[in-house]
């Protein structure tokens, strides 16, 4: 089986729980570390799927790799190679497919409830789940590209996830581990302290709530990732 390509855009936002999920199922994957200077592949021929992780930059930034990633995303859609985006990754997919990335009404940082949309596509991804507590760290949001089906929303962000066939884009984070949360709280402390949004938790709240909420989040990730890998090409 060809490996899944996982794009990392900053050192602290790696694949997290997704790597554990893939390793447990002997699904090969390859890290493409954009932050370390790795080149964006020109096409998807070497990969069974593409995953885009988060990052502090905007999908609208004039960075040399963003246009190349956009072209790769469109190549994947044309060739039916599954896409999976987390936060910035979901925004990159949206923008590449004609959606718009813009400032969210408020910043969301920390644990917050998301609700599953009432449609058959959402039930295919989430089963009978109606809501769960996701992890958030974003100040921007995406619109749904043409052909997308809405999957998730929160009180502070209308578009938390969408699907287009076998492609899944998330605004929220389901890939979190305890180590990632601790790391983000450290590097993002100034942003948290400066946050005046009702959707911004303190670093103490984030880490304390992780004890109870991470196991449930991992079960949600198992469901989503399990559905996504069914579409991987050989």
UniProtKB/TrEMBL annotation:
Residues 25-178 form the Glutamine amidotransferase domain. It holds the Pfam family GATase. One of its GO terms (molecular function) is transferase activity. GO terms for cellular component: cytosol. The keyword Transferase applies. It comes from the Bacteria. Keywords: Glutamine amidotransferase, Transferase. InterPro entries: ChyE-like, Class_I_gatase-like, GATASE. This is Glutamine amidotransferase class-I.
């Amino acid at each position: 089986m060809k490996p899944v390509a996982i794009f990392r855009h900053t050192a602290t936002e790696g694949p997290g729980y997704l790597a554990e999920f893939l390793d447990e199922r002997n699904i090969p994957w390859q890290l493409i570390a954009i932050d370390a200077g790795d080149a964006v592949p020109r096409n998807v021929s070497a990969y069974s799927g593409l995953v885009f992780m988060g990052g502090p930059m905007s999908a609208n930034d004039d960075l040399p790799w963003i246009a190349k990633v956009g072209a790769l995303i469109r190549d994947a859609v044309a060739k039916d190679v599954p896409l999976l985006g987390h936060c910035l990754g979901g925004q990159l997919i949206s923008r590449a497919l004609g959606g718009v990335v813009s400032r969210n009404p408020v910043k969301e940082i920390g644990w917050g409830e998301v609700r599953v949309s009432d449609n058959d596509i959402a039930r295919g991804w989430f089963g009978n789940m109606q809501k769960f507590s996701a992890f958030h760290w974003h100040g921007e949001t995406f619109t749904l590209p043409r052909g997308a089906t809405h999957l998730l929303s929160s009180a502070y962000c209308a578009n938390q996830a969408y699907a287009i066939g076998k492609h899944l884009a998330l605004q929220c984070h389901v890939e979190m581990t305890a180590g990632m949360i601790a790391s983000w709280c450290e590097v993002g402390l100034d942003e948290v302290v400066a946050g005046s949004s009702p959707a911004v938790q303190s670093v103490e709240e984030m880490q304390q709530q992780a004890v109870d909420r991470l196991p449930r989040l991992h079960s949600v990730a198992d469901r989503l990732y399990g559905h996504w890998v069914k579409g991987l090409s050989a």
